[in-house]
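Reading a protein record of the kind used here takes only a little practice. The integers have meaning only within a learned vocabulary of local backbone shapes. With that in mind, consider the following protein and its fold in token form:
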Amino acid sequence: MPMIPLTFVKDGVRLNYFSMITTVGTPQTVTAEELRLECMFPADDATEAEHSQFVRANSGLRPSHH
């Protein structure tokens, strides 16, 4: 699986991700053979923290209080 590094900068915040592309299917299924899935993952702890904060802020979920 090829891994492709990506960096985004927004409002001075640098976000580093890596992208993994997976091919789905077998030679018998022409339609599935052409299907590619790309997933992006945070590449470092700072990006993971920013990403998690963004997801929480935009998911409509409230933070849990213990």
Remarks:
- The radius of gyration is 17 Å.
